[in-house]
Specification:
single chain; about 280 residues; mainly alpha; Rhopdopsin 7-helix transmembrane proteins; two-stranded antiparallel ribbon; two-stranded parallel sheet; 10 helices; elongated
């Protein structure tokens, strides 16, 4: 028991100290470095770092002092009890909200629409961080109102029975399902946006190769349906539709059969060369 106590005290102080140094360095980089402070994502990350530091100051240090002194450090005064309760929840909400905004900003930067990519300006980012701080402070006020130093054991506890039952639920919702859901959704959307241009680029490259190889093979007398089917197989799922400079039934019909065998759509246009259907990407 004594060993566990000392581990908690010293480890808590160490983590709080190292975490504070890391947060201060991160915040100073995003705020002071010119090439970073002009980015909206840096504004969100700086806001998240600030919120994390508030959580450390209102939880890790008081917890370690409580175990070190065998005294409820939160209950040392009414002001300490209320301020730490307020800052712990508000700081956590600010940190998470800024992380959500950073994820949304990354998603917008990967969108094809220029209006979406340019929507998150630096001034908008600062305004969103300010609004996030205001909203987080507003919903954290009950944690200061309904927590106080009890007269019997001089500890910081909830004095409202209804809010005492509600507080763990609020911590659970804000701390677990919301981060997992929002970060996963926008992370997936960003990944999908980043993946799509790569597919288009590979499709264009495979189509270009198909065009060149088609010309070479047909020039050497190889049947066009075999050449197109062979290249389509090599391109795997990157070729979605194939077209040729031919509409003669004797050539088109066998080629369609070859395309159907390998699940590759075929489109024949006179003098069109080899094409792909971009609408099916």
């Amino acid at each position: 028991m004594i060993i566990a106590k000392y581990l908690y005290v010293y480890l808590g102080f160490f983590l709080a100290f190292v975490g504070s140094i890391g947060n201060l360095l991160t915040f100073s980089v995003f705020v002071r470095r010119k090439k970073y402070r002009s980015l909206s994502s840096s504004t969100f990350l700086a806001g998240s770092t600030f919120g994390e530091q508030l959580v450390l100051l209102s939880s890790a240090f008081p917890d370690s002092l409580t175990y070190a002194l065998n005294y409820d450090f939160y209950g040392i005064s009414i002001e300490m009890c209320k301020s730490t309760s307020f800052l712990y929840f508000a700081g956590g909400v600010v940190a998470l909200t800024c992380m959500y905004l950073a994820a949304i900003e990354r998603y917008l930067q990967t969108c094809r629409s220029s209006s979406q990519r340019e929507w998150m300006t630096l001034n908008r980012a600062r305004l969103l961080v300010f609004l996030a701080t205001l909203v987080s402070s507003g919903i954290s006020i009950p944690f200061a109102l309904y927590r106080n130093v009890t007269s019997n054991n001089q500890s910081c506890e909830y004095v409202n029975a209804n809010f005492k039952r509600m507080a763990p639920l609020m911590y659970a919702i804000v701390g677990v399902p919301m981060p997992i859901t929002l970060l996963s959704v926008f992370g997936f959307l960003t990944w999908r946006n980043l993946k799509t241009p790569t597919q288009r680029q590979r499709t264009g490259l495979a189509t270009h190769k198909l065009n060149n190889q088609d010309s070479k093979r047909t020039a050497h007398g190889e049947p066009i349906e075999e050449a197109a089917a062979s290249v389509c197989l090599k391109a795997s799922d990157q070729i979605i539709a194939v077209g040729v400079n031919c509409v003669h039934p004797d050539t088109v019909v066998p080629l369609i059969k070859q395309m159907n065998k390998i699940d590759c759509d075929f489109i024949a246009y006179p003098n069109a060369g080899v094409i792909w259907d971009s609408e099916k990407q």
